[in-house]
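Lab notebook page, bench 4
Experiment: in silico fold of construct C2
Operator: M.H.
Input chain length: 135 residues
Purpose: comparison with the prior construct
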Amino acid sequence: MLMPKKTKYRKKMRGRMSGHETRGTDLEYGDFGIVALEPAWITSRQIEAARRAITRELKRGGKVWIKIFPDKPVTAKPAETRMGKGKGNPEYWVAVVKTRRLIIEIIYHDRDIARKALEKAAQKLPIKVKIVEKQ
């Protein structure tokens, strides 16, 4: 699972996801990619599930770039705990993804298989996405 080796602070504030991404919106390495159409927190498990779906569909051929990294800890209090007594412990890690953000890029020689792999990966993500191609 993806997570940072070390962070400055153990717990972070929730923050906002309004607006759209200005950087990381264009294909740099690959020929095909997945672009977010709405903002969300994408967990490290969801990223890993999407990556596995792609590599399985491409039969471990091609190349995959994951353009997001889960560097935000999400905390949770234990079940049946009374209010107060501070913030809970970090439970899992998320990547904050805004609209227009490129999430995954791939290179593969067969266009149809590449699109099918990205469609399978899109099903693993909790947001609406669009598959893009290099012109």
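Observations: Residues 4 and 71 are 6 Å apart (CA to CA). The chain has a mean pLDDT of 96.
Next step: discuss at group meeting.
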